[in-house]
Amino acid sequence: MHAYRSHTCADLNTANVGQDVRLSGWVHRVRDHGGVLFIDLRDHYGITQVICDSDSAAFADLEKVRAEWVIRIEGSVKARDASLVNPKLPTGEIEVYARGVDVLGAADELPMPVFGEVDYPEETRLTYRFLDLRREKLHRNMMLRSNVIRSIRNRMWDQGFNEFQTPIITASSPEGARDFLVPSRLHPGKFYALPQAPQQFKQLIMVAGFDRYFQIAPCFRDEDPRADRSPTDFYQLDIEMSFVEQEDVFASVQPVIQGIFEEFGGGKRVDTDWPRIAYRDAMAWYGSDKPDLRNPIKMQVVSDHFRGSGFAIFAKLLEQEGTEIRAIPAPTGGSRKFCDRMNAFAQSQGLPGMGYIFWRAGADGLEAAGPLAKNIGPERTEAIRQQLGLGEGDAAFFLGGKPDAFEAVAGRARNVIGEELGLTEKDSFRFAWIVDFPMYEKTDDGKIDFSHNPFSMPQGGMEALNGDPLKVHAYQYDLACNGYELISGGIRNHKPEIMFKAFEIAGYPNSEVEKRFGGMVKAFRYGAPPHGGCAAGIDRIVMLLADEPNIREVIMFPMNQRAEDMLMNAPSEPMNEQLRELGLRVIPKE
After folding, report:
1. Are 565 and 233 in contact (CB under 8 A)?
2. How many CA atoms, within 13 angstroms, populate the side-chain half-sphere of residue 9?
3. Which of 156, 167, 291, 519 is the most exposed place for a label (fewest CB within 10 A)?
4. How many helices (H) and strands (E) does the chain have?
5. Residues 411 and 286: beta-carbon distance below 8 Å
6. Three-state SS string across 304-330, please?
7. 3-class SS at 476?
């Protein structure tokens, strides 16, 4: 018999009754029933109930064990009485009568419980992450993550992709976030960077003639944390393909992502029709470039109904260039109480409020109510109702100004309305490709900068770059699912002359492009194929599949919200010897 176990804690059933066995694991729970001990023994695979009475030679030693001690049990398998069978456990029809016990690893008093799913402070959970990971939910999440990655790899290989690894220590590159810099000992004063993504390398792989590449790639970005984003590092399914157009990438990616959600989605409905929505339409209809399509609400522009109306705030607003009034329909939201609640929501988001109209039964038929209705009159309110397709018991909310100023709040309001009114679907995954992103945007200081990936091909090529840069669209696309961005990608710019022009518009002279991207520019001069690809966030995919609101629940050893590793005490202060060797000096912050 093996030194530690003949079976795992999930193996035994009634077929093993009468057998002598050896089990090893953690003490999950101890129950003392006055001369009879019941111990739930747990390992990676499951739980087996161990029973011991005062007739057993192991009784005295088992009385001493406590939760999370690691022990080895020797005993025999017995069938449970029918009334004591636990149908929730694969081993619920048997128990192991203990004749011997060895303590393999005693445990100090626990700083947090492992049994049950008690909600403990995040600082404690991350400081003792190895204990936190023993809890059933987190253990299940980590196994889900492992199985998802295994399945992704198999699906990519089955589609003819090959997995290659790219460097972790490389050069700094403007990818839209801050780099983590690594000082060089051999080249004092110079720094490497941890890659924000394998972007340049995967394009070079295409230039080298490897047609279809993928990698489960670690990426490093010095970012502010969010519930759906790690502040330091994350993993992505990185993909690149040669001789492809946008539709080819979509056709290759959909079976992989759809298959993953069908395999691990827990029976939720997986949408198979993935619409293409232009970025400008996504912002206009949903107030977001990652819309949650489980919510059927679609915003509409209703500016014409307020021009020259009795509602002076909107009427005067529309006299300014670039302004509009947008309506958020709210089917079944037609009560003053709900309208006031949504108005308060807008105020909590930093806006003065949201105008609203709701429709109810009146003495002469359908009646529009609310402050806006009184100001603009029955003809205009009826025209709005008909445009939005609303009826009795429904409402509409209104925001106005320049879209950039209110769009994000309108999108959040749409989500809240959908949730509160029960309009948003449950138990489903709804996908959409967001396409035709603007190539450039204007920064707060009035400069032109890339709005997305700087390596994307502009639609229209060089000719498009000779016009107004703010009107240039790129072959860039995102995949949205249930309000999250899962994938971002594009058809790449593989022509040096177009690449130089694209960066020049964003304020990068040719010399700077050569300095920062010299390897890629050089490669493009020696025959580069048209190519494109994308990257899918592994952490975010698993977060959705596990139905977790926070990405830290699906990462084995995450940072906290201040980008600190509570378990390993990182970041830490370097030793003086390390700084001297690197030729560095730390200047204290004032």
Report:
1. no
2. 23
3. 167
4. 16, 24
5. yes
6. HHCCCCCCHHHHHHCCCCCCEEEEEEE
7. strand
Cβ contacts of residue 538 below 8 Å, gap of 6+? 145, 148, 149, 152, 216, 234, 235, 236, 237
Does the global pTM surpass 0.85?
yes
> Which residues is 536 bridged to in the sheet?
237, 487
557 and 545 in contact (C-beta within 8 Å)? Answer: no
Provide the 10 A C-beta neighbour count for residue 262: 14
Omega of the bond prior to 571 within 30 degrees of 0, cis?
yes
Phi and psi torsions of 197, nearest 5° = -170, 160
- The tokens describing 555, both together, are 């990462």
From the list 232, 228, 239, the residue with the least C-alpha distance to 196 is 232
* Per-residue pLDDT in tens (0 to 9) along the chain, 590 residues: 899 999 999 999 999 999 999 999 999 999 999 889 999 999 999 999 999 999 999 999 999 999 999 999 999 999 999 999 999 999 999 999 999 999 999 999 999 999 887 788 999 999 999 999 999 999 999 999 999 999 999 999 999 999 999 999 998 876 567 899 999 999 999 999 999 999 999 999 999 999 999 999 999 999 887 777 888 999 999 999 999 999 999 999 999 999 999 999 999 999 999 999 999 999 999 999 999 999 999 999 999 999 999 889 999 999 999 999 999 999 999 998 999 999 899 999 988 888 999 999 887 788 999 889 989 999 999 999 999 999 999 999 999 999 988 999 999 999 999 999 999 999 999 999 999 999 999 888 889 999 888 889 999 999 999 999 999 999 999 999 999 999 999 999 999 999 999 999 999 999 988 888 888 899 999 999 999 999 999 999 999 999 999 999 999 999 998 899 999 999 999 999 999 999 999 998 87
H/E run at residue 358: strand 355-362
What is the C-alpha to C-alpha distance for residues 487 and 215, in angstroms, rounded to an integer?
Answer: 14
Q: Do residues 486 and 257 make contact, with C-beta atoms less than 8 angstroms apart? A: yes
Alpha carbons within 13 angstroms on the beta-carbon side of residue 271 total 19
Structure tokens at 136: 């059933």
Cα gap 70→396, rounded to integer Å = 61
Contacts 24+ apart (CB under 8 A), 59-66: 61/101, 61/103, 62/37, 62/98, 62/101, 63/32, 63/37, 65/27, 65/30, 65/39, 65/101, 65/103, 66/27, 66/30, 66/107
In DSSP terms, 325 is beta-bridged to: 400
What is the b/e burial string over 118-156, where b = at least 16 CB atoms within 10 angstroms of the residue's CB? eeeeeeebbbbbebbebbeebeebbebbeebbeebbebb
Starting at the edge strand that comes first in sequence, how are the strands of the sheet with 355-362 ordered? 300-301, 324-330, 395-401, 355-362, 365-369
Cβ distance 178 to 207 under 8 Å? no
